[in-house]
Amino acid sequence: MKLTGNLLIGANEVPASAGTMKALNPSTNQLIEPDFAFGGVVEVDMAVNLADEAFDQYSHTSLTERAAFLERIADNLDAVALPLAARAALETGLPEAQLQGEAAKAATQFRQFAEVVRKGRFLQLAIDPAQPDRQPRPRMDHRLQKIALGPVAIFGASNFPISYSVAGGDTASALAAGATVIVKAHNAHPGASEIQAKAIRKAVQDSGLPEGVFSMVRGGGNAIGEALVDHPLIKAVTFTGSEQGGMALYRRAQRRPEPIPVFTEMTSVNPTFILPRAMTARGAQIGDGFIERMLVNVGQACLKPAILIAIEGDGFDAMRAAMIKRVADAPARPMLTPGIHASYLNGLDQLQSAGARSVVEGSAAVADLDGQSALLEVDGERFLSEAALAHEVFGPAALLVKVTDQAQMLAVARALRGQLSAAMHLEEDDFELARRLLPILERRTGRIVVNAFAHPQEVSYATIHGGPFPASSDSRFTSVGMTSIERFLRPLSYQGFPDALLPEVLRDSNPFGVPRSVDGQ
Ligand code: NAP
Asked: What does the mean pLDDT of the chain come to?
């Protein structure tokens, strides 16, 4: 598949105005052809103006039309899945088979959102019919639907180069909502980004939609992202990445003359608690499973279980030995970018400076960007006195926190910041402790898992991939799953409208048969 390296702004291939870059193969630390264009404020302005022009038509597409468009994107992604996975593997060092799975997942997400659109429940239609005879005063007819916010900016993530990137869940849910989209492609995988963007652009053209429905820009440095967040026609932003980057963009958006929502998904250590009976019954198995999940994607996953909290006692040594073995056996694998590799090494240093002791390391790095796995440990008292120990180290490292008793386990839980997920491993005899732990975790996480680890594969109606700060900037929303569409919607009420002027879904005939509440029933 030929890559042009251009920015894709509506139907236009726009060449570089602010320099170029080449992708890096992290397995070899060598640059790969071709050159990829960087744009700046001018290109952002072009893309956002096109998105704004396209918005009225696109946001008024019928549910059937919009669902068919999303399915076209899915079909186009399927058609390029193999070259897309091959290019993504070159640019990320991740296994090609895993990336084929990601491509399939991305296509599936578009199909799932097509289904969400067809069902129409996301519109949350409500009708309060007129009551002309009501006393002491008559009531006018009120009808409510959710509408899209407007053009939105999406920052592609680095760590899942397809399913959280240009054709990831953010784009799928925003397009499903009726928003027009400008993606800021992540420079860690520019070729994979171009292939995805072209699959979406082709669907825009084949569906007869205005070109501004979708654009992809790219830039070197912060200027391009800042220009997107600052643009007055942008009405919401999504971001997956570092706490520092996410908060810089969040604060920037709040300083605009017109502040806008910024939905960031940033950092989480996904704490795992092993309760005493479970430890006795199957400590080794849990310890092994914990490290197995920790190592997925070379530890570069938002749901990576990074901290394990366990009470010293029966089963503890077997669990620790199983963790040590799994880490020691782990080969070093390339990390996504030189920056992520450097910040992994720095993060390990910081854990050790804060008092964590190194227990074991995996096989030594062979290539420059290889991440060597690491297990560190610390006792509960030290953990409670050093906030730095509760911070995420993005990469293949885990911290074992050895607590003295149940009270200290609960204190460690209370010391944690907001999380995407937390897990409890327990047996029936642990329920009493679980009942005390649960309210602490409920206040701090978006998902609580029992006798398993949080899994990123599930994309469904009950999926929550969000949580209290700093896991996300707004714990009321999720960035994955069918309800992630809600980030791009706002309620609009129509009062006293003649039927013919109402949106189709709110007319008396209800042509799409979307469920509606009438007088709250
Ligand atoms: P990042 O540095 O936060 O960058 C993410 C995206 O935002 C990139 O496109 C970046 O552009 C842009 N950006 C960041 N700060 C910006 C600013 N101040 N103004 C404008 N644009 C800005 O994240 P990353 O590159 O993916 O990885 C770095 C670190 O992020 C990792 O080491 C890890 O700690 C964290 N991370 C966490 C998760 C998670 O799910 N928990 C996922 C991915 C990454 P440029 O690339 O041009 O700078």
From this structure: 97
Name the residue of 242, 302, 393 to mutate for ligand 1: max ligand atoms within 8 A of Cβ: 242
Task: Check if CATH label 1.10.3570.10 holds for domain 272-450.
Answer: no
Q: Is 458 a catalytic residue?
A: no
Ligand 1: residues whose CB is within 6 Å?
A: 155, 157-159, 184, 186-187, 221-222, 225-226, 240-242, 245, 248-249, 265-268, 302, 339-340, 343, 394
The architecture that CATH gives domain 7-130+139-266+474-506 is 3-Layer(aba) Sandwich (3.40)
How many angstroms separate the most distant Cα atoms in the chain? 81
State the pLDDT at residue 466.
Answer: 97
Sheet of 12-14, strand order: 12-14, 7-9, 214-217, 181-184, 152-155, 236-240, 262-265
Ligand 1 centre to CA of 242 (Å) is 5
Long-range contacts of 29-32 (CB under 8 A, 24+ apart): 29/338, 29/367, 29/368, 29/369, 32/90, 32/91, 32/191
Q: Per residue in 95-118, pLDDT tens?
A: 999 999 999 999 999 999 999 999
Beta-strand ranges (E) seen in 105-177 are: 126-128, 142-148, 152-155
Question: What is the model's pTM?
Answer: 0.97
User: Is 265 assigned a catalytic role?
Assistant: yes
